[in-house]
TrEMBL record:
Residues 51-99 form the Ecto-NOX disulfide-thiol exchanger 1/2 domain. Pfam families: ENOX1 (PF23267). One of its GO terms (molecular function) is oxidoreductase activity. GO terms for biological process: ultradian rhythm. GO terms for cellular component: external side of plasma membrane. It comes from Operophtera brumata. This is Putative ecto-NOX disulfide-thiol exchanger 2. Residues 98-117 are annotated as: Disordered.
Length: 200
């Protein structure tokens, strides 16, 4: 039969063992929990980094596409404006030559500008004059308030280096059906106004 001392000792040992096991279990759970938290943190960081790179790539792609669309819009706009200006100059020259839309030609004592087809058979000087008429027409249509002779001459010289202040002034005066001097020495495009007045 086990003595009381032995029994107490055995009971104490069993308690120590249980305490040790419990402590180990707690330690193991703590380590597992700690490791899981660290793993989750690392995983979250990895996911965030991947997501950031993905968003960055998508953003760069969108920026490139937007820039491409913007360039296409600018090119299309420039092309449309160029064609429109060419059409206006051609149309105005034709109307001036034939005395305006839907009315017989009337001699007004001023020369009418030639059409582009007629320019093919002109001497070089007349071709230059026709170009001046077309350029001044397009410019003044875009500036309905008119422009000074200095401004017009500067514009024309940027397009036709050989043009002079005098040549621009001569064309403006010669084609009185198209251009007229207004207040403050500004020249304006007046063909449409003349056509409207004669239509009443």
């Amino acid at each position: 039969m086990m003595s009381l001392k032995t029994e107490v000792h055995q009971t104490g040992c069993d308690g120590c063992v249980r305490d040790t096991v419990d402590l180990e279990n707690i330690k193991e759970e703590f380590n597992m929990l700690f490791d899981e938290e660290e793993t989750d943190k690392i995983g979250q960081k990895l996911v965030s980094a991947e997501k950031y790179e993905q968003l960055k790539v998508e953003n760069d792609t969108l920026i490139c596409e937007l820039e491409g669309y913007r360039n296409e819009c600018h090119l299309a706009k420039d092309e449309a404006e160029r064609k429109f200006e060419k059409f206006k100059a051609h149309y105005i020259a034709q109307q001036a030559l034939h005395g305006g839309p839907n009315r017989p030609h009337q001699q007004r004592g001023t020369a009418a500008p030639p059409t582009p087809d007629e320019m093919k058979y002109m001497p070089q000087g007349q071709k230059t004059e026709a170009k001046l008429v077309a350029m001044l027409t397009a410019f003044l249509l875009a500036h309905p308030l008119g422009a000074t002779i200095d401004y017009l001459a500067s514009y024309v010289r940027s397009m036709i280096p050989g043009a002079t202040h005098s040549s621009v002034n001569t064309v403006l005066i010669k084609y009185g059906d198209i251009f007229a001097r207004q207040a403050k020495d500004r020249w304006a495009f007046v063909l449409f106004d003349i056509v409207k007045q004669e239509g009443h």
